[in-house]
């Protein structure tokens, strides 16, 4: 079960229960490790003549039977907090990596800066410095490509299910990869989270470390982050460099 599949399960359950005015998508917000919250029951309750908790209870009955869902709690005026199983992390990464890779755009700094400015604003976008958000996003993508090259040289292959992700920076990055947003601001958040993850625990062995399952899992996390960054940059008309 991935966040995307969870959103689809929520909408499908709402339709099967006969709710009117089912939205096109269910907004999910990360609440913790493999836990997502949604207020969709509040949207459905009014047209159905129900209170928020009543609508949430009906959805809960369907959701707890979904494969990969470990628990569903109702809080406040009808919010649903949904906990997914431990396999959700690997499923999310595999889903991200299964998306078609975008075509490579030729490197054009002036075009890239203009496209980013149109999407996010800002000045000094041609400056290759950390305070430049466009630079951080493109650098983060290039970093993921370098990690994959290094992994190949060391015989470390990405494996989403090789080990658990328990470090806070890893959890934060996973939550961002599970969000559907692909705005310029979201790309900056993904880039910053990836770089924070690498500072905390490198995807590749350091010093006398031997390659392990943890390295294979972390490399898959970095690969997925790179895929999200590449796709987001392409949609904005900006090149995603392999080297920087």
Task: Please give the structural blueprint.
Layout: H1 3-16, E1 29-32, E2 35-38, H2 40-48, H3 52-63, E3 69-75, E4 79-84, H4 88-97, H5 109-120, H6 133-154, H7 168-178, H8 184-200, H9 213-235
Helix pairs in contact: 2-3, 4-9, 6-8, 6-9, 7-8, 7-9, 8-9
Write a structural description.
It contains 9 helices and 4 strands. A hairpin with a 2-residue loop joins strand 1 and strand 2. Strands 1-2-4-3 form a 4-stranded antiparallel beta sheet, covered by helices on one side. With 244 residues, it is of the alpha+beta class. The protein is globular, with a radius of gyration of 20 Å.
Give the gist of this structure:
The chain has 244 residues and is α+β, with helices and mostly antiparallel strands.
Strand tally is 4
Helix content: 40-55%
Weakly predicted, low-confidence segments: none
Biggest sheet features:
4 strands, antiparallel
Mean residue pLDDT: 93
Radius of gyration: 20 Å
Shape: globular
DSSP helical segment count: 9
Distance between the termini: 35 Å
Helix and strand sequence: HEEHHEEHHHHHH
What proportion strand? 5-15%
- Order of neighbouring strands in the sheet with most strands: 1-2-4-3
Instruction: Give the structural class.
Output: alpha+beta
